[in-house]
Each structure stands twice: as structure tokens, then as C-alpha cells.
């Protein structure tokens, strides 16, 4: 059965983006993101797609959720106009659907999510896109791994998995 997984990184104050970009450098989080999404169906919004420079993530089925059915997307991206279509494509491929942003797509997908994978950066960062605080009442949490700031990671961090109860 296809699982719906949401993955993101955020600062203590909930920041996930600034000026259309991720405002930090966390090599450990990027490696985790790649390992988690590789050979899966990823769902993103148009702004997230644009933040990749119009280049699809390799070895993944790249879906873009858009309300503009006539919008032309760069090669390597498939357009979907609702969450059900994205889920159906993942089910047909017998792969998990991994929601990778942005905020509007996260908000839409949250009620369908089976699992959340969240990297918490141990700092506060000013930004223009933030996630709301997670109400953990309906989630079972588990620490996956943690690390310190170093030459590859701007900030100390911890990666948590939340599974719906």
C-alpha cells in the first residue's frame, strides 16, 4: 500500500524558506532527503519546482501540483491538478508518495499523511515561509538521528519520524 510521507527541515521558529530558497546548508539533511526520496514519487508545488532551477530530481518521479491546467512544465516534471491524481500515480507505480513542499502543498497533504520526517535545526532563522507547530497528539515520535554543527552542517540538528497513531 502506498504511504504518504511528508519531509521538510525547519528552524526552531518554524522557518522553512526565505526568498524562494532554503536559508541554510545542512549536508546531513540533504543526504537524508535524497536517501528518503530516491526511487519514489515526489510531489511539490510550482514554487518548489522553480527553486530547483527547473531541473527534476534524478531517479524520482517528479510531480508538480498546480491549479493552472494549461501551465507548461520543464521536461522531467508531470503536472497534477489535485492530490488524488498524485496519489493515484504513486499507487500505479507501487511507490510511496513523498511530499516535499512548499507550504501550501504541505497543508493540503497533511490530512493524508501517514508519516512525517522533520529535521529540526537548533537555531532560529528569519524567513518568509514557516510551518505551524506540530500537534503531536495523533503522532508517535521517534528520533532517527542527530548531529552537531560542523564544516558540512551550519547548525546542530535532529531528525524525527512521526507516524500517525
Automatic annotation (TrEMBL):
Molecular function via GO: dihydrofolate reductase activity; NADP binding
Pfam families: DHFR_1 (PF00186)
Reactions catalysed according to its record: (6S)-5,6,7,8-tetrahydrofolate + NADP(+) = 7,8-dihydrofolate + NADPH + H(+)
GO biological process, any: dihydrofolate metabolic process
Biochemical pathway: Cofactor biosynthesis; tetrahydrofolate biosynthesis; 5,6,7,8-tetrahydrofolate from 7,8-dihydrofolate: step 1/1
Coiled coil: none
Stored InterPro entries: DHFR (IPR012259), DHFR-like_dom_sf (IPR024072), DHFR_dom (IPR001796)
Superkingdom: Bacteria
A GO cellular component entry from the record: cytosol
Domain DHFR residues, every copy: 3-164
E.C. number(s) listed in UniProt: 1.5.1.3
Keyword entries, A-Z: NADP, One-carbon metabolism, Oxidoreductase
Function (record text): Key enzyme in folate metabolism. Catalyzes an essential reaction for de novo glycine and purine synthesis, and for DNA precursor synthesis.
Similarity comment text for this entry: Belongs to the dihydrofolate reductase family.
UniProt-recorded name of the protein: Dihydrofolate reductase
Native source species: Weissella oryzae (strain DSM 25784 / JCM 18191 / LMG 30913 / SG25)
Amino acid at each position: 500500500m502506498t504511504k504518504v510521507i511528508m519531509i521538510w527541515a525547519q528552524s526552531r521558529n518554524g522557518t522553512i524558506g526565505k526568498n524562494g530558497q532554503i536559508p541554510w546548508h545542512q549536508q546531513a539533511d540533504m543526504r537524508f532527503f535524497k536517501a528518503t526520496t530516491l526511487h519514489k514519487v515526489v510531489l511539490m508545488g510550482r514554487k518548489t519546482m522553480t527553486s530547483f532551477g527547473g531541473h527534476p530530481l534524478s531517479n524520482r518521479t517528479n510531480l508538480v501540483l498546480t491549479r493552472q491546467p494549461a501551465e507548461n512544465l520543464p521536461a522531467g516534471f508531470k503536472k497534477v491538478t489535485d492530490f488524488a491524481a498524485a496519489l493515484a500515480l504513486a499507487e500505479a507505480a507501487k511507490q510511496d508518495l513523498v511530499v516535499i513542499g512548499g507550504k501550501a502543498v504541505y497543508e493540503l497533504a497533511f490530512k493524508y499523511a501517514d508519516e512525517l520526517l522533520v529535521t529540526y535545526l537548533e537555531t532560529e532563522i528569519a524567513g518568509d515561509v514557516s510551518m505551524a507547530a506540530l500537534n503531536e497528539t495523533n503522532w508517535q515520535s521517534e528520533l532517527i538521528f542527530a548531529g552537531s554543527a560542523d564544516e558540512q552542517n551550519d547548525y546542530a540538528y535532529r531528525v524525527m519520524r512521526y507516524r500517525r497513531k
